Amino acid sequence: MRNLKSKSNLDKEAGNTLNKTLFIRELDVTKDPTIKSVVDEILRDNGRIDVLINNAGYMSLDAIDQKSLEWCQGMMDTNYWGVVRTTNAVLPAMKKQMSGRIINVSSIAGVLALPFYATYSATKFAIEGYSESIAPVLRDGYNIRVSMVEPGPVKTELTNMVFGTPFEEQAKDFDPILRDLVVTNLKPKAAGLSSVLQGADEIAKLHMDIILSDNPHLRYQTSENLTKRAVMKLRDPTTDFLLDMLKQSGNASPAE
Questions:
Q1: pLDDT digits (tens, 9 = 90+) for 157-185
Q2: Catalytic residue among 120, 130, 142, 220
Q3: Secondary element (H or E) of residue 209
Q4: Which keywords appear in this protein's UniProt record, sorted alphabetically (predicted)?
């Protein structure tokens, strides 16, 4: 975690596993030295790294043009480049041992972009493209499996912050047309959030299923409803056919 001063809840939840099978360390995905420190410690103490779950990220309303480019770059630095940094940090060990699991937590917003959250959606689309590209190479060359998890809203502090703050307040400085669009469209969705909200334990169980699978999919939606939404855009919601891009005929363009 970025700030070890905030680890009291984690310490409590860890119980008697703390510092035995569960270790809490400082890691900021925007700072290479903190990533290297954790990776070096794991390799020193265990000699290998079997699993990387890229879960760091945040979202916020940008409504197309209401945030500075620096603000947008900051979100991309965490949500996307953070995935690249940590992946690059573990790959030497995983390649050497010829095994590993990398789980990149994307979002249904990486399949169907969310209006008013352009930057957040762009970061998740970037993760999807990156993962699609590296997955067949790492699988066929090094027996390293890459999977994406595409949740909708999950019961976390982030969701409480994003949807718990009145949209009238979030959009108070927007021009009248844009402010009205934000409130009119997002307020009803926030009101119905409880019916689609998933628990963090449910997502964690899916992560474990992926880790233990002999042949994990490239994509996993976290609920039946989200799979139905993905089907609207993807001909196969697991997109396993993309893993065979290296084996497909060179007659077709990659974009076809």
A1: 778 777 888 899 999 999 999 999 999 98
A2: 120
A3: helix 200-212
A4: Membrane, Oxidoreductase, Transmembrane, Transmembrane helix
